[in-house]
């Protein structure tokens, strides 16, 4: 008689399901995953893999890791990155060397595909957590990622 | 017949003293209709809000909590928005039926509300065939759904309406038979007398095992009757857009939406009346304060509404064949057996009474 055992099994599995959702219901006040965004702006922490915008981190001595190899510029499918570079005398070795002048990043064109970050051999650029990018003028979305007067971090090219 | 009057005894006396009997009777009916319309609107909006909050909690979200305290005014704002929207329709729709359909759904929901005993005195229409009237009226709503789906001239709406028809016609049997099981104990269809019988213990206690089985069948069939998940094939969002009300917008859509929630409340209210002693307090603890009956009634109904919401946010949607298998191969035979068992129990006087 599988008829009655089917009914028994059916009811049992339904109750199992209801107990699972019931537990979620009871713990929802503590475990709610909703971020009440404008209220918790000060404490809001985006998750690690969030792709907000491309940033170039600098250390305390205003040094970045970008060698100006332009691989990111080549990798970018829609011309978001423009590197303005020049040759200058390197202080340590005294030889002529390629240096970046401006790392221009057009956020308005960026599709957040991440190819530039994947391709960067020196990990000079990475994903930032900022997402509040609305501005009244789109020229504000064109950014220079390297700080003025910043230099290449020594030892990056070795 | 209209017994809601003793709670407003003074209004009743005043009306009869100021105008002729016929006129006073008419004015009273209008007043009661207005009171019930208000209850209808408020309860509908309130239920929509509860559904959204409960759903959010089941899914580890927070739900609407911005408009008013804890989002209490959210559904009011939604209703206002829907009121201000344009009433669109398809070009080749059957205009007359298309416009008529929402009213079928909403009026039947409203009529069923009249028979429900909120408390001893707050009971608009106490006819001797109360339960039969409830079952009959609650199944007229499906005509509105069928008309709405058919007259929209849209294939999704039509499929949704046809599914709804299949579902409602099958599950009506189970609702009727499970209530009939309880009528074997009460021996009457009149709602006020069903409540009277339960003063010796709620019917789910009096009828013990068969009553519990009947209650389970009633809740399953009731969920199906209101076209709610897991039986929501009539509007299965992932398959049919919005099902039978795909082509409705603005307030006409809101009528369908509200009627769905009122129907859910009605199903819970019937279960409260028939199985859980309507407005009777547990163990008669507040018997001396009759007005608390409303509180007990609503509390019990809300628990059952919550149960239906729990179903909705737990179970996946059934396929059409699974739906019909459940009804015709499981619920119906069990139900028929259950009636026989209940008849034996009533005959041998094995019911539990305090």
Which range does the strand content of chain B fall in?
Answer: under 5%
Report the total helices of chain A.
Answer: 3
Mean pLDDT of chain B: 83
Give me the Rg of chain A, rounded.
Answer: 26 Å
How many strands, what sense, and barrel or not for the largest sheet of chain B?
none
What distance lies between the first and last C-alpha atoms of chain B, to the nearest angstrom? 31 Å
Give the N-to-C terminal Cα separation of chain A.
Answer: 77 Å
The secondary structure category of chain A is alpha+beta
How would you describe the shape of chain A? elongated
The total of helices of chain B stands at 14
Oligomer: heterodimer
So what's the CATH class of the largest domain in chain A? Alpha Beta
Q: What layout of secondary structure does this protein have?
A:
The complex is a heterodimer of chains A (158) and B (354).
Chain A: H1 2-31, E1 53-55, E2 63-64, H2 71-75, E3 81-89, E4 96-106, H3 115-119, E5 126-128, E6 142-144, E7 151-152
Chain B: H1 9-18, H2 21-58, H3 74-83, H4 95-114, H5 130-138, H6 141-151, H7 155-186, H8 191-197, H9 203-206, H10 208-225, H11 237-240, H12 250-275, H13 292-312, H14 320-347
Helix pairs in contact in B: 1-2, 2-3, 2-12, 3-12, 4-5, 4-6, 4-12, 6-7, 7-10, 7-14, 10-12, 10-14, 12-13
Short summary:
By secondary structure, chain A is of the alpha+beta class. Chain A has helices at residues 2-31, 71-75, 115-119; strands spanning 53-55, 63-64, 81-89, 96-106, 126-128, 142-144, 151-152.
Write up this protein.
The complex is a heterodimer of chains A (158) and B (354). Chain A is α+β, with helices and mostly antiparallel strands. Chain A folds into two domains: 1-34; 53-152, Alpha-Beta Plaits (2-Layer Sandwich). Chain A contains three helices and seven strands. Chain A has helices spanning 2-31, 71-75, 115-119, and strands at 53-55, 63-64, 81-89, 96-106, 126-128, 142-144, 151-152. Chain A is elongated, with a radius of gyration of 26 Å. Chain B has 354 residues and is mostly helical. Chain B has one domain (88-347). In chain B, 67% of the residues lie in helices and 0% in strands. Chain B has helices at 9-18, 21-58, 74-83, 95-114, 130-138, 141-151, 155-186, 191-197, 203-206, 208-225, 237-240, 250-275, 292-312, 320-347. In chain B, helix 10 packs antiparallel against helix 12. The relative contact order of chain B is 0.13. The interface between A and B is medium-sized, with 16 and 15 residues.
